[in-house]
Amino acid sequence: MRSRTWAIGLGSLLLTTVLALPARANQLLFWRLDASQNRLEFKTQGAIAPQAQLIFNPQRIVIDLPGATLPANRSPIQGGAGIREIRVGQPEAGITRLVIEIAPGYTVDPSQLRVEGPDATTWQIRLQPALRFAGGGIVPPRSPVTPPPSRQPQLPPPRSPQVGRQIVVIDPGHGGPDPGAIGINGLQEAELVLDISQQVAAILRNSGLDVRMTRTADIDLDLEPRVQIAEQARADIFVSIHANALSLDRPEVNGLETYYYASQAGERLARTIHQSILSSVSIRDRGVRQARFYVIRRTTMPAVLVETGFVTGSEDSRNLANPNHRRKMAEAIARGILQYVRQN
């Protein structure tokens, strides 16, 4: 299924701003900005599982803390280079939210963003190297952090494929609070496609390609940041990997589907990957199709979306739950990509 920001070691701390409060049951105890490292640190009394996403207009990083209560002191933290401010709120009962508002002239590469922690109560978000200067308005630095020196457009123009080393972006669908499709025996799309995608990336890197992944952990990533990762990397190929679903009442529906948007190059890529899978993986053929899915419609390089089977299908769900089948699927997708690169 197709849909729409992450991952988690705490080193020595140089604290420039601290908000500390007495503890209550699973209260957000403090949040603070280490401006010298452009790193947000926060701690709760009880264990939590932060859920982070990147939101646009205005651009901001949102971290939800399910089950954490608001502190009494909610004064915002004024940011350093690239950060306008950090504030805390409660969008709904039972969820405390930290918002990092990005300063004008800066952009965030979600693939470089990490939410990390040594335990389930102590966390940090490293904003470097994810935070990049992209031109436009600038908030003067409040710390020794030096913004990247070059001015780059946020969205580069369409490009022709490189003659040399190819850049491939692999996009595992869904993630974080969005598990994607849930199938027979609770099979979750986001977990399956992350495993397949990581294996595809490893094979392609071993074959000499420059591979970027939109996510490398069970994190939430919206659709536009996935496109941004590919565009900012000036990728030659974009492959989004998903698993399909219908109703659990339709276990007879199984099979492989591969989608492209409109370009001839996208169609060639889709057909090459599709045929590579069919030639080496036991799966029904539901064809190569055109579609207007956001990530293949908004990217400027040849882009496809591969539906690796139905988690609600009696055949596909059994196969997708099998690590050996997922390995074969990853190998077949990687072979198709490599064949396309050689032919184009």
Automatic annotation (TrEMBL):
Keywords: Hydrolase
This protein's record includes keyword Cell cycle: no
Domain of life: Bacteria
Limits of the MurNAc-LAA domain: 227-338
Family annotation (InterPro entries): AMIN_dom, MurNAc-LAA_cat, N-acetylmuramoyl_amidase_3
Region (Disordered) location: 136-162
Pfam families, sorted: Amidase_3, AMIN
UniProt feature, compositional bias: Pro residues: 141-160
One BP annotation, GO: peptidoglycan catabolic process
Protein name: N-acetylmuramoyl-L-alanine amidase
UniProt source species: Synechococcus sp. (strain ATCC 27144 / PCC 6301 / SAUG 1402/1)
